[in-house]
Q: What sequence folds into this?
C-alpha cells in the first residue's frame, strides 16, 4: 500500500503506539513532577524560590521591570514587595504533563533523542498554554506543584505524526494559597 | 560589576484605556545562539537545535538554531507586565506558538484591548496579543486578562 493511502494508525510504529498507550494510562493520575529536565539539569524545583534566581530569569529574558529587582520600589506597589514575573512558573517547571521518567526514556542525558528506542521520534515542544494567576510568587516561597495528564490524541500534521498530550498543573505556596493553575499542551513529533 | 538598569513602569489606569486601545509594542532580538543558550541554562532544555546551528541543520533539517517556544511565551507575557504598571495584575494569560523562530529573527509583540468590564469591584481588561517577525510572520498568538486601578474607584457594580 502506498504511504499516502495509509491511515494514521497504519503509519504508526509499534513503539509510538506503546507511548500512546502509556500516556493514556496516566490520564487523571496526579503526580508530583520533577521538572522534566531535572534528571539532566537540576532546577531546584523543590527548594524555596531564591531571589537571585528570579533576577536571573528576568535578566535572561531582557525583562528589567523594577518589580523583580528593586525592593524599595516593589514595597510601594500593590504587591508590597519583590515578586517574580508571572511566567517564572516556566523556570520552575515547564508545565508539560509528562512524568520525568518518561522524558528520560525519550531523551538521553545530553537532551538528545534516544534514537535506538524511538527511531521515528523527531522532537517535542509546548503547543499551547493557558494560565490563571491567583497569588504572586515571592522570594523564599516554597511552591508545591501537582500535575495530571488530562488528554492524549493523535493528529496527522503536514510533516509529522503528532501526539498531543495536555494536562493541568496547580501551584500552591507554603501558606496553602493557590498561586496559579496552568493548562498546558505538549506535542511529540514522529516521522 | 555594573548595576542592572531596572525600569520603573508608569501606572496604567482603567479610565485611560478604551476597547481598541493598543498596548505599546515590545521588540526582542535579533535572536542569537547566545540568547538561546542563556535561556537553556535557566530553563533546562538543552536540546542541541536550540543553540547549535550545525546540529539544527544537519539533524533536524532546520534553517538554523531554533528559539525555545517557552521563551517567546515569556516575552509575550512581558508585553502585559511592562504595560500594567506596579499596581496592575496579570490574571490570565494564554498563548499558542504559530511559527518557528530562528537565529537572526527579531520579534515584536503587539496587542490591543478587546473588552473592558468591572466585576466584584475589580476593573478588568481583556486583550488579544501576538508576536510577529521582521517580515510580518505571526510567531505567537494569545490573550490575557489584567486587573487595573481606576483614577476614581467606581461604585461597586457601576459600569463606566
A:
Amino acid at each position: 500500500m502506498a504511504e499516502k493511502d495509509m491511515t494514521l494508525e497504519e503509519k504508526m510504529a509499534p513503539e509510538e503506539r506503546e507511548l500512546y498507550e502509556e500516556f493514556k494510562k496516566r490520564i487523571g493520575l496526579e503526580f508530583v513532577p520533577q521538572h522534566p529536565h531535572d534528571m539532566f539539569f537540576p532546577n531546584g524545583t523543590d527548594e524555596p524560590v531564591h531571589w537571585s534566581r528570579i533576577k536571573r530569569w528576568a535578566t535572561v529574558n531582557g525583562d528589567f521591570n523594577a518589580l523583580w529587582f528593586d525592593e524599595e520600589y516593589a514595597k510601594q506597589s500593590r504587591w508590597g514587595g519583590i515578586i517574580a514575573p508571572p511566567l517564572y512558573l516556566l523556570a520552575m517547571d515547564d508545565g508539560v504533563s509528562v512524568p520525568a521518567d518518561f522524558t528520560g526514556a525519550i531523551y538521553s542525558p545530553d537532551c538528545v533523542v534516544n534514537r535506538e528506542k524511538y527511531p521515528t521520534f523527531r522532537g517535542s515542544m509546548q503547543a499551547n498554554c493557558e494560565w490563571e494567576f491567583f497569588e504572586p510568587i515571592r522570594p523564599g516561597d516554597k511552591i508545591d506543584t501537582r500535575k495530571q495528564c488530562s488528554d492524549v490524541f493523535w493528529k496527522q500534521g503536514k510533516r509529522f505524526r503528532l501526539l498531543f498530550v495536555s494536562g493541568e498543573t496547580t501551584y500552591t505556596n507554603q501558606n496553602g494559597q493557590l498561586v496559579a493553575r496552568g493548562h498546558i499542551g505538549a506535542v511529540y513529533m514522529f516521522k | 560589576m555594573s548595576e542592572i538598569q531596572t525600569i520603573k513602569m508608569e501606572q496604567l489606569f482603567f479610565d485611560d484605556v478604551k476597547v481598541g486601545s493598543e498596548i505599546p509594542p515590545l521588540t526582542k532580538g535579533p535572536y542569537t545562539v547566545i540568547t538561546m543558550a542563556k535561556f537553556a541554562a535557566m530553563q533546562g532544555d538543552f536540546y542541541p537545535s536550540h543553540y547549535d546551528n550545525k546540529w539544527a541543520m544537519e539533524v533536524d533539517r532546520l534553517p538554523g538554531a531554533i528559539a525555545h517556544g517557552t521563551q517567546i511565551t515569556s516575552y509575550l507575557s512581558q508585553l502585559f507586565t511592562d504595560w500594567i504598571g506596579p499596581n496592575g495584575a496579570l490574571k490570565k494569560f494564554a498563548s499558542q506558538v504559530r511559527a518557528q523562530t530562528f537565529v537572526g529573527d527579531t520579534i515584536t509583540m503587539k496587542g490591543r484591548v478587546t473588552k473592558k468590564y468591572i466585576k466584584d469591584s475589580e476593573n478588568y481588561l481583556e486583550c488579544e496579543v501576538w508576536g510577529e517577525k521582521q517580515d510580518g510572520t505571526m510567531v505567537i498568538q494569545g490573550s490575557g486578562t489584567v486587573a487595573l486601578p481606576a483614577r476614581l474607584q467606581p461604585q461597586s457594580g457601576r459600569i463606566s
Observations:
- The longest strand of chain B covers residues 107-119.
- Chain B is about 20% helix and 30% strand.
